[in-house]
Design a protein that fits this description.
Length: 553
């Protein structure tokens, strides 16, 4: 709520209060006066409002010592700005207890001269308040027109920050939901070399800003050399935080008067970000269509493909690595809460796009179904191995950022380097296989490269019917027996191979007795008809286990 009044300190500077003396509560001089009232009855608590300056001769309670003692605590509890007493006619002097209470509650207590006229005090204070209200409304209108004009005429967040900072005379910064700076204007006021340097560092320190905002307070204090204050406002649309607006100030707290119109700024920032999202959404659909045309062979010229990609800011002429991102729980979310799932998918797109633009400009980011696809371009002069390392680093960075901001697990499949952009379908197939097989065969992983699939690459190229027959012949009966009897023989077999057929290590890993393991081995050999001492039989069993993982069982 905007405060359109004057402080007690400012009121005491008016000519009509020239003879007034502050006798207590000096630390409350910055309390705001929004109105003036006169105490005419003893039970004044029923007739006062917060932020009022109360004038009195103390006549209604002149003979009631207890009422005099309780007056300041009661007024303070009601949120009054100050009490001004003209004591000489009825109580001679202001009681010492009232002065002590004024200091205790930091409640300004003012002694008026006997010649003071209440009307002559009320009128100039109310006039000053009305003048300030008019000035504030005028500046609000000016601010609203300026900010709205920026959006209407195509200005961005940087222009909004510059304009707002100029109108307020205070530094302004705009940050994304993770408190990373997206626009700022820090020039309007010089806070001194140390604070200027501290401010320049603070607006880029997302961790410190996030930590400071955890307290939930509107005004934040930063312990720099001279001290910096900030007011932080979330930019929210439909309960989703789009951004944060910071207004920065010097050592003293920033008053609401200095930043009136900030709500208009928040609204305009929300409009600008909504506009950016709408444009981004349309561009995403065009990008997705281009990729589908390229995959389906509807774009037959490599030169045309390169030129069209350049219009989106993509560099595909020198090839790329295809990366597919998939949210682990997105499908179940679509089934249960489709609206929330769409918001989450868009958020994933935004976070990945920001990371890719920052770490690998020229790379493509596009939606493909409910997955996100990145065409990661190679850095000039880097070999294929380095490109793979760069792709994996980028994928892990995105996974870490998504886990931090959305608390969600993302899986990434990465293809080999695709030198010819016309062979994008090959890269998509490889990254899809890396993602699907990685999900089933390597449960703890998040980033899977096609080259890491090992023997799965051979199995993927095999005849599906023949591979199923091989699996049924080698492992089918053992899987059926395990399902019926819960014997744990498949797990035992996997642990044997994982421990290079070392029986003692396998027994320890399974937390079973050595003899129990020998019994299980015998059952495996009886059911499969294979000998675990035979290299050929072991290879057959290992291949069948790989097929089992591919099946996702």
């Amino acid at each position: 709520m905007l405060i359109m009044g004057i402080t007690v300190r400012e009121a005491l500077r008016l000519p009509q209060l020239e003879g007034a003396v502050l006798v207590g509560g000096e630390q409350g001089l910055d309390r705001i006066i929004n109105s003036v009232n006169i105490m005419e009855v003893p039970d004044i608590g029923n007739y006062i409002k917060p932020a009022e300056l109360l004038l009195t001769t103390a006549y209604p309670i002149k003979d009631d010592i207890r009422a005099l003692e309780n007056l300041i605590p009661e007024l303070n509890k009601c949120g009054l700005a100050a009490l001004a007493i003209k004591p000489e006619r009825y109580i001679r002097e202001i009681p010492e207890i009232m002065i002590k209470q004024a200091n205790k509650y930091k409640f300004p207590l003012i002694k008026l001269p006997n010649s003071a006229s209440f009307n002559e005090i009320i009128n100039p204070i109310l006039t000053e308040i009305l003048n300030r209200q008019a000035a504030i409304l005028q500046r609000n209108e000016q601010l609203s027109k300026a900010l709205t004009g920026i959006v209407l005429y195509g200005g961005g967040l940087a222009e909004i920050a510059r304009t707002l900072a100029g109108l307020l005379g205070l530094p302004v910064s705009i940050h994304d939901p993770a408190f990373r700076k997206i626009a700022s204007w820090l020039a309007p006021r010089d806070f001194g070399a140390d604070n200027n340097r501290a401010l320049a560092e603070l607006v880029n320190d997302s961790k410190q800003l996030a930590e400071a905002c955890k307290c939930g307070r509107e005004q934040l204090v930063f312990n720099c050399a001279g001290g910096l204050y900030a007011i932080c406002r979330p930019v929210t649309v439909a309960e989703e935080i789009y951004a944060y607006l910071f207004i920065w100030g010097p050592q003293k707290p920033i008053s609401e008067r200095e930043i009136t119109g900030i709500e208009q700024a928040v609204t305009v920032i929300a409009l600008e970000i909504s506009k950016q999202r709408a444009v981004f959404d349309v561009e995403s659909r065009f990008k997705s269509s281009f990729i589908e045309y390229l995959v389906d062979g509807k774009i037959t010229s490599k030169e045309d493909a390169i030129i069209l990609a350049e219009r989106f800011g993509w560099e595909i002429a020198n090839g790329f690595t295809v990366m597919l991102f998939e949210c682990d729980d997105l499908q179940s979310l679509y089934d249960q809460e489709p609206v929330f799932a769409r918001k989450k998918r868009l958020k994933i797109m935004e976070i990945v796009n920001t990371a890719v633009v920052s770490l690998s400009p020229g790379s493509a980011v596009v939606e493909r179904g409910r997955r996100l696809m990145v065409l990661h371009r190679p850095l000039p002069g880097k070999d294929i191995k380095q490109l793979r390392r760069n792709s994996e680093t980028l994928a892990r960075s995105c996974c870490e950022e998504l886990a931090k901001r959305l608390d969600t697990r993302i899986l990434v499949g990465i293809s080999r380097f695709i030198a010819d952009p016309m062979k994008i379908a090959e890269g998509i197939n490889q990254s899809h296989q890396a993602l699907e097989i990685g999900r089933r065969a390597y449960e703890r992983g998040q980033v899977f490269h096609f080259d890491d699939l090992g023997v799965y690459r051979i199995l993927l190229t095999s005849d599906a019917a023949e591979m199923q027959r091989f699996y049924d012949d080698i492992l089918g009966q053992l899987v059926s027996y395990d399902e019926e009897n819960k014997a744990g023989l498949i797990t035992t077999l996997e642990m044997l191979f994982a421990n290079d057929m070392n029986l003692q290590k396998t027994a320890d890993a399974l937390f079973i007795h050595y003899n129990t393991l020998r019994y299980r081995i015998n059952r495996i050999q009886q059911i499969t008809g294979l000998d675990l001492k035979s290299p050929d039989d072991r290879l057959s069993l290992q291949l069948a286990l790989k097929i089992l993982h591919m099946k996702g069982n």
